[in-house]
Amino acid sequence: MSNKPVTVVAIDGPAASGKSTVARQTAQALGWVYVDSGALYRGLTWKALRENVDTTRPADVIALLARIKWDFFDDQHSIRFTLDGEDPGQQLRSEIVSKAASDIAVVPEVRTFIVGELRKMTEFGSLVMEGRDIGSVVFPDTPFKFYLDANPAERARRRAAELARPENEGRGDVAQVLSLLTQRDQKDSGRKTAPLQIPLGARVIDSTQLGIADVVALVLGELRQAGAAP
Ligand code: DC
Known about the structure:
Layout: E1 8-12, H1 19-30, E2 33-36, H2 38-50, H3 58-67, E3 70-74, E4 79-83, H4 95-104, H5 108-120, E5 127-131, H6 134-138, E6 144-149, H7 152-163, H8 174-190, E7 203-206, H9 212-225
Parallel strand pairs: 1-5, 1-6, 2-5, 6-7
Antiparallel strand pairs: 3-4
Helix pairs in contact: 1-9, 2-4, 7-8
The structure holds 2'-deoxycytidine-5'-monophosphate (DC).
């Protein structure tokens, strides 16, 4: 492990708040490593579904967690992983995985494991990490915390537009997306362990009226002002 000091930028917020794009572009602008923490929750869910493990049974999910092997690697400044040597790829984004991921995300043992893996990622260098509990639980001491939000109707509109792209098989009904999004928000905010919340000291950015480039500029501006970025 290198002893080089690293900086972590934590970007939290609800589903479809724009945090993935903002985090990815911020990392790119800085030449830092992008981490999508939700992908780890999705990865375990994907594996559970493949092995017919019932994601609503915490004991079964914990048993699965104990027998699988994760390998993390840096792919062009973005962290990817294999599970027992297999790359889950785009299957992580499927609706069935999205839905079941919020079941496994409530299991404290799962969270402890994933939080540990996320903390180890500083071995890859300075990070821009997005999620639900990055500024509150994973890296509570980082001075760079952002909480990105947008009103639910706008988030549903953005997610529906994303789903309607040909590579996502063209399903993008705004009303249905809004209903699923609201359910997921409630699950993520209402759970006992590490609920979605505004981390202490986070800068809240409402992106309802802002473009991605504006939000990235705000984040980079704060880092530069603190002397943490060129
Ligand atoms: O951000 P996402 O949609 O990829 O997240 C997938 C699920 O994992 C979602 O239910 C929220 C959960 N999650 C979490 O609990 N904590 C994180 N840091 C990231 C995601």
